[in-house]
């Protein structure tokens, strides 16, 4: 199963396919975050634009970005 989002505008990317592993990864990170703190979850998604179609992007990976928050100020961790 792949989730597909469609944009009907005349410019830019018209279709984004999200692999199931991306959804599970985001959900897993959200669950882990909930156990440790109540702050926000920041992450990155990676994908590819199909060579034969500039209108299609496939998102295939998601990663959390470690960070700390103090008074709504976010600082990325470089450890």
* Helix-residue proportion: 10-25%
Computed Rg: 16 Å
Strand order of the biggest β-sheet? 1-2-4-3
Helix count equals 1
Summarize the structure.
The chain is built from one helix and six strands, in the order ββαββββ. The protein is an alpha+beta fold and 79 residues long. The longest helix has 17 residues, at 20-36.
Q: How would you sum up this structure, described in words?
A:
This protein has one helix and six strands, in the order ββαββββ. It has one helix at residues 20-36, and strands spanning 3-6, 15-18, 43-49, 56-64, 67-70, 73-76. The longest helix has 17 residues, at 20-36.
Keywords:
alpha+beta, 79 residues, two-stranded antiparallel ribbon, 1 helix, 4-stranded mixed sheet, 6 strands
How would the blueprint of this fold be written?
Layout: E1 3-6, E2 15-18, H1 20-36, E3 43-49, E4 56-64, E5 67-70, E6 73-76
Parallel strand pairs: 2-4
Antiparallel strand pairs: 1-2, 3-4, 5-6
């Amino acid at each position: 199963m792949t989730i597909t989002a469609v944009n009907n505008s005349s410019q830019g990317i018209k279709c984004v396919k999200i692999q199931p592993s991306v959804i599970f990864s985001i959900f897993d990170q959200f669950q882990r975050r909930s156990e440790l703190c109540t702050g926000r979850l920041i992450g990155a998604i990676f994908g590819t634009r199909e060579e034969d179609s500039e209108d299609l992007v496939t998102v295939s990976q998601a990663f959390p970005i470690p960070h700390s928050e103090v008074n709504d100020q976010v600082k990325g961790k470089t450890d």
